[in-house]
Design a protein that fits this description.
43 residues; mainly alpha; 0% strand
């Protein structure tokens, strides 16, 4: 996933419920870091 695609996906989360937006945001961050072999710890 590239940064422009990630920004588009984040824009779509504005009107979502808080929990759903949070979960999708963490998924997007994970996808962005995956090619760099970085595994985020999200608490």
């Amino acid at each position: 996933m590239d940064i422009s695609k990630a920004l588009e996906e984040l824009e779509k989360l504005k009107d979502k419920p808080k929990y759903e937006a949070m979960m999708n945001t963490t998924a997007i961050i994970t996808k962005l870091l995956e090619p760099h072999k970085i595994q985020p710890i999200i608490v």
